[in-house]
Amino acid sequence: MRFALIGAGVIGAVHARLLEALGDEAVLVAVVDKDLDRAGKLVSQYGGRAYPTPAAAYAAEEIDAVGICLPSALHADVAVEALHAGKHVVVEKPVDISLAAADRLIDAQRETGLTVAVISQRRFQPPVAQIRAAIDNGALGRVTSGIAESAFFRPQSYYDGDDWRGTLAVDGGGALMNQGIHALDLLVWMLGRPIRVSAQTGRLAHEGIEVEDLAGASIVFESGAIGLMLASTAAYPGRPVRLTIHGDQGTAVLDDDQLAYFAAADAAAPEAPALEGPDGWGPTELAHLAQYRDFIAAVREGRPPAVTLEAGRRSLATVLAVYESARSGQPVELKED
């Protein structure tokens, strides 16, 4: 499958490395960035040609799919442009920073019938798959609660390094929108449709930013289950994502990319799937690679990808409800997806 990458920054380089690791499954034919020197550096390492705009790349190259690796507020518009140019799309998380933007993209996907996947690679990690399988096969019984903890650390230099980081207009949010959304997505994937959010946010450890570096939320789900979410970029030195799922027949805990605890009244832990990839790659990298493989298979098989636009929208809606609740000091009801 012939790919173009749109955005040659840090995450663009990650995607270029993923495409290289796919071997015969994919080839990078174009890198798009308004900074042609930056695009050229990726091209020199991973192949393809550099272009200043998506339109220039689409006019010059045969491209099957694009990976969108731009600041968050640019995701939907660039993805819509790609769809109307006949390209399938992989878009980084979050899907965008507003529900209106996400809905424009959903409308374009339905209009064109092309495939769009939202990056949420943690769903592909073997211990996460084990927990989801335990829910699906009833090993945990009725799921009653969940706790997701994304206690990361980002130095001040992280926000100072790019003028768009930490801005409401482009970044759209902070510790929850851009780091904790991975853990939040897992919580929502495990517990179902959120219906009510009560939350608080803070900016405690960073200066010169418009967004939160700490968020805490209580989430009520349609099933009656209750979830707790903590997202931080102010937790030195930073800890791996921790996810706990409780049911009335069992409990499962993800910690440090491992199934750290599993207990069920009448079942053992499901078997962990194996992920293939280059030697030395870590669990998150292998999961990222697995999501790309799922996307390629979805295109070829004419099926939805494992992480759909609708799933990305649900996670975004929950993030925005957290922010609204924190601003208003009141619980926020989520509408139907």
In the sheet with the most strands, the strands line up as 13-12-11-7-10-9-8-14
The chain-level mean pLDDT equals: 97
Shape: globular
Number-wise, the strands total 14
Query: What is the succession of H and E elements?
Result: EHEHEHEHEHEHEHHEEEEEEHHE
What gyration radius follows from the Cα positions, in whole Å? 20 Å
Number of helices: 10
Distance between the termini: 32 Å
Care to describe what's here?
By secondary structure, this protein is of the alpha/beta class. It is 37% helix and 23% strand. It has helices at 10-21, 36-46, 54-60, 75-84, 99-112, 126-136, 156-160, 175-191, 283-301, 309-328, and strands at residues 2-6, 27-32, 49-51, 65-68, 88-91, 116-118, 143-151, 194-202, 214-221, 226-232, 242-247, 250-255, 258-264, 332-333. It is globular. The two termini are 32 Å apart.
Which helices and strands, and how do they pair?
Blueprint (H helix, E strand, L loop, with lengths): L1 E5 L3 H12 L5 E6 L3 H11 L2 E3 L2 H7 L4 E4 L6 H10 L3 E4 L7 H14 L3 E3 L7 H11 L6 E9 L4 H5 L14 H17 L2 E9 L11 E8 L4 E7 L9 E6 L2 E6 L2 E7 L18 H19 L7 H20 L3 E2 L4
Parallel strand pairs: 1-2, 1-4, 2-3, 4-5, 5-6, 7-10
Antiparallel strand pairs: 7-11, 8-9, 8-14, 9-10, 11-12, 12-13
Helix pairs in contact: 4-5, 5-10, 8-10
